[in-house]
Amino acid sequence: MERCCRTCMPCLARLWNCIWPEQHYSPRAEPEEPAEIRTVAGDLRVPEPKRRPAQLYAALFDFEARSEEELTVKEGDKLSVIEKRGDYVLAKKLTGSLESGLVPASYVTLLKDEFAKYKWYYGNINRQKAEKLLLAQQNKSGSFLVRISESNSDEYTLSVRNESKVLHFRIQRSSIGSYYVSYKISFATLDELVGYYQKNYKSLGVPLVLPCAQQRELYDMEPWEQPREDFTLHKKLGQGHFGEVWEAVWTTEKKRVAIKMLKQEDTRQDEFVKEVQALKSLHHPKLIQLLALCSRGEPVYIVTELMTKGSLKNYLESPEGQLLILAHLIYMASQVAEGMAYLEDRSIVHRDLAARNILVGDNLVCKVADFGLARIIKDSVYTASRSTKIPVRWTAPEAALHQRFSVKSDVWSFGVLLYEIMTKGKMPYDGKTNKEVLELLTSGYRLPCPGRCPSDVYRIMKECWNSESAKRPSFHDLHSRLNQMYSSLYYNTVQV
């Protein structure tokens, strides 16, 4: 193909239109490898936008339709709410007739999928761990578990032991929120899907006999403290507010990892154990996974998964990062918002959300790192002193001036991170001192709209920088809006 101008819309449209062919999944074991695609920015992999499923609702009371526009429902019926219309909601049944219509809003309630109560649910464990568990001696053929998909956090994987092998079946979500392995039959909940295939195992070709025998609680309490000699440092990746970061090899596990080194003199020992315990309980595809600790001796090692392309800050400034187009940038920002929404639900405050603390892997996968780490650093290190180490340029005024950190101060930081993304790594308030930045912010000044940044994206930044923290958007709202922008760019190749 002849080289053309990057802004040539006919060429841009042709390239986008051929990115992802339509795919169909049959009810058989599927690999979790992403498909390879080409983009206008070169050989970078980006996935098709998620068609986020509607939230699951249930009818609280019986309701009899009084017109053709209304929908008759029975107490307990599972519903997908499409939109709200005044005192009513437009809802669709997820089972039975699959009809849709209006139902009084007070007659329905939001359901949260609380899968943790089921013995077969193992949350965010990877394919390798699932196989290790199922092939353990106490499990027999027919043992199974359900886990979050590694390639799509809105989907799940059913892993089943079949003699000496483990088969993996992708559980997808439809646009109305139902679950299915085969598009021929879907279910309102994961529990219903599992129950069906336990009774109709021939549809899968392997029986589901009993949930994985090893208790999740025992597995989760595997010793995190590991011998320091099990790790061989390979190369230094960088240095931040909290210490050096190294790429290393975990020799006993035969895998590459990242190690953050902390000096014991800089850590608050009273907070360290408590905070690390909290970090171990967090599992989400958009958060860096904690793998091990070496807290005996100097320095402290915090061992996490390794992201091959390093920090988002460095990646944006790299030659590859400079090739990224708007759709790529919005996609990465959406992933960060997704990870932060998970922390928001658990009232966990990051305190240092910035591009340097987002890590990038293959296929433009982004994960939030260093969440909660600020809490275990001594106040003398993490305060606004003359030789300040508090990230003033990313910190909300109420947090920088009065130490009032909250989820909403993280939202402010996200607005600055979005500025970093849209400028491909430019320093916020470049040329200004921290003192000058604080004076500017208290006077009402805000960062200007970056060049070639769509007005809708800059509007989101300004909402994040509202002086009244309560008026800043939630991370769930930010994720939803950015995901919609990405879908629009991906499918229509138009500017938002």
From TrEMBL:
Residues 52-113 form the SH3 domain. Residues 231-482 form the Protein kinase domain. GO terms for molecular function: ATP binding; non-membrane spanning protein tyrosine kinase activity. Residues 120-212 form the SH2 domain. It catalyses: L-tyrosyl-[protein] + ATP = O-phospho-L-tyrosyl-[protein] + ADP + H(+). The lineage of its organism: Eukaryota, Metazoa, Chordata, Craniata, Vertebrata. It is found in: Cell projection, Ruffle; Cytoplasm. The keyword ATP-binding applies. This is Tyrosine-protein kinase. Belongs to the protein kinase superfamily. Tyr protein kinase family. ATP binds at residue 260. Its EC number is 2.7.10.2. GO terms for cellular component: cytoplasm; nucleus; ruffle. Keywords: ATP-binding, Cell projection, Cytoplasm, Kinase, Lipoprotein, Myristate, Nucleotide-binding, Phosphoprotein, SH2 domain, SH3 domain, Transferase, Tyrosine-protein kinase. InterPro entries: Kinase-like_dom_sf (IPR011009), Non-receptor_tyrosine_kinases (IPR050198), Prot_kinase_dom (IPR000719), Protein_kinase_ATP_BS (IPR017441), Ser-Thr/Tyr_kinase_cat_dom (IPR001245), SH2 (IPR000980), SH2_dom_sf (IPR036860), SH3-like_dom_sf (IPR036028).
